[in-house]
Amino acid sequence: MGNVYAFSALTGGTDDSYLDYFDGNDLADGDFAFGIVSGKKYNYVLDADSAATENSPYIISPDSNAGDKRWVLVAPAGPMSHVNVYRNSVQTLAVNAANTLVFNTEEYDVLSEHDVATGIFTALQAGYYHVCAAVHISLPSSSDDIVYIYINVSGRDLRGARTIGSPGGGNYAFMVSGTVYLNAGDTVSIDVYNITGGNITTEANQAWMTIDRIA
Questions:
Q1: pLDDT, tens digit (0-9, with 9 covering 90-100), for 52-92
Q2: Domains delineated in the chain
């Protein structure tokens, strides 16, 4: 069994409260580090042959005598990712554009991976995640109004659905669901493409998203 290190910050180390402060000459395979930073729990193991490019918080390189040694983020013991968020106000969706739904209210976010300011989920761990989202939108009266909703993974629209408005307009519910594989650091958002005669709005408290890591 390796040595165990504790920290309260990740990079920029000036003392042993920082993970990257520990000298690479003192580190070996199997060393373990744990800490809570800004309310998030992080667990790392030392891979002496990694040589990966530093990518905080997923890969941390020692500041001194790093060589190929890297701290590698590992899945924490206990609950996996579980997110349930919604939007408590209307959101304007610009015409002829991709609009990211911003879910500004959290029911829960076990690992603090969702950003209420942007609507973007960032996976702490690699794995399979089930994503489900829905939004209610009032469409105008044009018969050729089209709205698409997609699960966007790190800039790529993967799962989608389309609704075509009928003459007279009306309220429509859009829903998308699917299981995606995420690497650590991958992002998930819900994109709505508005191809109508103008800007449209969501209904307050009628846009939501859940994300659950299943494996």
A1: 999 998 899 999 999 999 999 886 555 689 999 999 999 99
A2: 4-74 (no CATH), 82-213 (2.60.120.40)
